[in-house]
Amino acid sequence: MIQPIDLCPGVLAFTTQRGNVNTRNKYSEFNVCNYTGDDALHVLDSRMMLCMQLGIDMDSLIMPHQTHSCRVAVIDNRYMSLDIDKQENVLDGVDALVTRLDNVCIGVNTADCVPLLLADPEARVVAAVHAGWRGTVAGIAARAIDTMVKQGARPGNIIAAMGPAICQACFEVGDEVVEQFEKAGFEMDSILTRDARTLKAHLDLLGANRQILKKSGLKENHIFTPCKCSRCNPASYFSARALGINSGRTFTGIMLKK
User: Fold this and answer.
1) Is 3 strand, coil or helix?
2) CB count in 10 Å sphere of residue 91
3) Tell me, which fold does domain 2-256 have in CATH?
4) How far is the C-alpha of 136 from the C-alpha of 108, rounded, in Å?
5) What whole-number distance in Å separates Cα of residue 75 and Cα of residue 106?
6) Angle subtended at Cα 227 by Cα 223 and Cα 228, rounded to the nearest 5 degrees
7) Cβ contacts of residue 209 below 8 Å, gap of 6+?
8) How would you write 52-120 as a 3-class SS string?
9) How high is the pLDDT of residue 181?
10) What is the sign, positive or negative, of the torsion defined by CA atoms of 47, 51, 56, 61?
11) What pTM, to 2 d.p., does this model score?
12) CB contact set of 185 (below 8 Å; sequence gap of 6+)
């Protein structure tokens, strides 16, 4: 279920895998996302299994209700002291989380978008970011880094890893999406190709986020993309393009260990 990501000492980083997949069930087998149509009891059971593997209480598993926004929330002691309704309000419409708390797992749910984990092991600040194409264009990764810096991190110390996401060959987009990336100032030569037969555009979403990370001050050798394409590997990871939007989500999380 948990696929570890080797990020840095003192930090547990991972992504989940689907498990023993029933091809007739788009939420099979392991899914912790509760807003894409899955049965609530199945989601709860999956979350309990994850918390058992992580050795934490359910209250220490934090994930936002993502909406392709550019909002970043800080998970601190004040947040942890709120009642559940107020916590849900904080997390609604948020696509990145930052924390300095030990043994609190933050993470994001994806099904082709880029899940990005960030850690400054010296300042002990971590972040989890959901970067779809809209969030990428709006620079959500940069906003998460800015929030980490406000919590004491230094860009040159931050290590980044991207989890399973759609590869460039699978990510066909319309020209209106290409225009959004051009207007945002991305170096298009390194992230845009066109199919020789159809002339359709294909974007490298991982590469686009790598550009953002480097512009934000991260070192080239501190940026890793260790996981496979979500659409090419639907037996391991959920893919909206392979399964439809009413399907499960892959959870990519990070936790500071005491």
Assistant:
1) strand
2) 18
3) CNF1/YfiH-like putative cysteine hydrolases (3.60.140)
4) 15
5) 8
6) 135
7) 114, 116, 131, 136, 141, 162
8) HHHCCCHHHEECCECCCCCCEEEECHHHHHCCHHHHHHHHECCCEEEECCECCEEEEEECCCEEEEEEE
9) 98
10) negative
11) 0.97
12) none
Alpha carbons 57 and 156: distance in angstroms, whole number:
33
Mean pLDDT, residues 143-157 = 98
The residue extents of the domains of the chain are: 2-256
Would you call 227 exposed, middle or buried from its count of C-beta atoms within 10 A (0-12, 13-18, 19+)? Answer: buried
Exposure string over 51-71, b if 16+ CB within 10 A, otherwise e: beebeeeeebbbbbebebbbb
- Contact partners, residue 218, CB within 8 Å, separation at least 6: 145, 155, 156, 158, 160
Residue 226 has pLDDT above 90, yes or no: no
Residue type, 11: V
pLDDT digits (tens, 9 = 90+) for 58-113: 999 999 999 999 999 999 999 999 999 999 999 999 999 999 999 999 999 999 99
**Local confidence band at 1 (pLDDT 50, 70, 90 cut-offs):** confident
**Nearest CA-CA partner of 73 in 158, 145, 144, 15:** 144
Q: What letter would DSSP give residue 151?
A: T
The amino acid sitting at 91 is L
> DSSP string of 165-230?
B--TTT-EE-HHHHHHHHHTT--GGGTEEE-TTT--EEE-HHHHHHHHHHHTT--GGGEE--SPBT
CB-count burial class (<10 Å; 0-12, 13-18, 19+) for 49: middle
**Mean pLDDT confidence for 17-42:** 96
pLDDT surpassing 90 at residue 258? no
